[in-house]
Amino acid sequence: MTTDVALLDEARSTTRRVARTFSLACRFLPRGIRDDVYLLYLVFRTLDDLVDFRSEEASERVRAVELWAAGAPASSQESELLEILVSRHPLPRQAFADFCAGMRFDLEGRSNVTEADLDLYCYRVAGTVGLAMAALLGAPDEDAAMAAKALGMAMQRTNILRDIDEDLVEGRVYLAADTLERFGGSLAPGSRAPLMRDQIARADALYVEGIAGIGMLPSGRRAVSAAAAMYREILRQIEREGYGARAGRAVVPSRRKIAAAARHVALAR
Question: Which CATH class is domain 5-268?
Fold first, then answer.
């Protein structure tokens, strides 16, 4: 099956516009697979944006992917793209069903109570992306897939820590309520360092698990290594800035991000 040129252009431009770190990492992908990664990203990103911005189409578009994951007829841009991709790669349909469950969680405005809840949420919205990417990159076995799942979860936990203040403005808290209570219940800048240390350690443990599986991938090892290094550097930036001593998003300078990626790409090579 062939891909519409306009859709491919949209996938490329979307990745470059809204996912600068991921876009940088994609430059290390083999040419033969790079465009399919862009298309896969467009599926996940479109659904995530529709849900985040509470679009009237969100539930219907999520439903179309749920139907596709169940092997039922579905008609949406995302299901059509997935049909193209699954004709070329053994995509795990259950991962897309689980991703949709994460989208439903957000649509319903639910909260994470325990760390187990948060782990499940991170799996659904990002570990599933890792599983899909692993399949697209030809992951040979379950061990490689589970490492990719852990890496996706690590990146989602990183996103949550980076975006605490932005999410608070939107009335969202993704951290586990039990953990918040254990560390005093406050997310005010200057009072959350112990909480941030705890959460960074949990994310780092997932990075260790995920990075250990990169060498199992038959292709894309340099790209995944670069993405992991650049995302993990956000945690180091949070530490450098005093574990949330000031409000705002931790931003890694481009030179530091590129240096981190270069070191890990060299190791992957």
Answer: mainly alpha
List all residues 6 or more positions away from 155 whose beta carbon is below 8 Å from its beta carbon. Answer: 126, 227, 228, 231
Query: Per-residue pLDDT tens for 129-145?
Result: 999 999 999 999 999 99
φ, ψ (nearest 5 deg) of residue 186: -110, 140
Distance of CA 182 to CAs 120, 131, 163, 168, 173, Å?
20, 32, 21, 19, 15
Q: What is the pLDDT of residues 173-204, one digit of tens each?
A: 999 999 999 999 999 999 999 999 999 999 99
- The residues spanned by each domain of the chain are 5-268
Task: Please state the pTM of the whole predicted model.
Answer: 0.95
Count how many Cα atoms sit within 13 Å of the Cα of residue 205 in the half-sphere of its side chain.
Answer: 7
User: Scanning the structure block, which residue is given the tokens 């040419």?
Assistant: 31
End-to-end CA, the chain:
33
Given a contact cutoff of 8 angstroms between Cβ atoms, the answer to whether 214 and 225 are in contact is yes
* Residues of the chain predicted below pLDDT 70: 1-3, 267-269
155 with 231: CB under 8 angstroms?
A: yes
